[in-house]
Amino acid sequence: MKTTIKLAVASALLAAASSASAAGGIVAGDWTLDIGGNVNAYYTSTRMSGDFKPAAGLDNTTNNITTGLLPNFLNVSGKTRQNDLDVAFTIGLQPGGAQSNALSGGSASEHRQAFLTFGDKSWGSIKLGKDLGIYASDAILSDMTLLGVGHGAAGVGTTTLGRIGAGYMYADWKSQVAYSSPNWNGFSFTAGVTQSWNATNDAGSISPVPGTSATSTARGGSAPAFEGKASYEWAGDVAGKVWVSGISQNVDFAAAIGDETAKAFDIGANVNVAGFGLTAYYSKGDGTGQTALLNNGFDALGKSRDSDDWYVQGTYTLPGVGTKLGLSYGESNLDGNSTDTFNDNEVQMWTAGVYHPLTKHLNLVAEYSDKDVETSAALVANRFDGSQKTISAGAILFF
Question: What is the CATH number of domain 36-75+85-398?
């Protein structure tokens, strides 16, 4: 049976893991059906200092056993050729690995994928349904911590955060209608309309921003968001990929404020040569916020905040054994505006990781991530300065 994981990042980060598939598939009438996915689990230990410290008397270190940035995936997909069209579907379930209820032993579950596609290699394809967003998607798909943990392990959610909010914005999983072009000698593009998000003005514990806890009155606009990306990919002794993407969404405030627009763009590149890999990424936003789309992008009066994200990542794959060593550093910055009580909220993190293919299906992973959050403000009460240091070790299995 042919089994694949629908997140293409698996092959980009650890070819030994994602190449584990056999030829064939289940033939059911006109359809060829596939099943695939991954299971992962990590032991994590996060030590908090500065303003991240818990209340007096509580331990500064939190230990969890949980999934990493990539959730557990179980995907069922099918494809067929009818009336000169390639028709396909994917439905995915993502059960969490963290125990969310100490009494029942239950865990959170998500439903991130449910979409259909149709098209032809001569003119491209159309996607309808829920899948990974378009803007900033290559940033997360290039992140080495997607096979590991990164930051955010101190909580017990469905997944950790990897480098989300510490180098790039979360692309998220969105209902969408999107067109993808054919591949013209390495060049391709995707453009689509996606479900608009509501603006929120509360960053919570992910990247605290003192003075922004009041919920804004904004909601998603009556129109959807517009997203697009273009990329060029090449092979050879020096292989690589460059891409740009962008997003624009109307944000509807109360009548006294009116409508605003949140928008952002990014640019990135991957280069691979002789076992070495280098990734560089940068994004700039106005009203798009920090960590998650529209999170703290506007104040309660509808005034937008500027933001930028960037990270660099270097990897080296040891000849013969296939072990990948990686080191990355990134920042996410949110600027205060003229009405804010803070000047800047900066989240920075560096991560060192080891990713070893024990078999072509199974990878052992160990990481160390050091995240620092600093909010500068004139008033001491609006300042924040804390760090979280996370050690993680575990395994991820692709099937």
Answer: 2.40.160.10
Instruction: Give the torsion through C-alpha atoms of 47, 165, 9, 157, to 10 deg.
Output: 60
Residues in the chain, how many?
A: 399
Q: Smallest Cα–Cα separation from 368: which of 390, 394, 349?
A: 390
pLDDT in tens, 124-137: 999 999 999 999 99
Using an 8 Å Cβ cutoff, are 176 and 192 in contact? Answer: yes
Q: How far is CA 229 from CA 6, 135, 393, in A?
A: 19, 7, 34
Alpha helices in 73-164 (DSSP H): 137-141
CB neighbours of residue 373 within 10 Å: 27
Query: For the chain, what are the domain ranges?
Result: 36-75+85-398
Mean pLDDT value of segment 207-211: 58
Residues 6+ apart with CB under 8 A from 116: 87, 88, 89, 127, 128, 129
Assigned token pair, 92: 């995915």
Q: Where are the alpha helices (DSSP H) in the chain?
A: 9-13, 15-18, 137-141
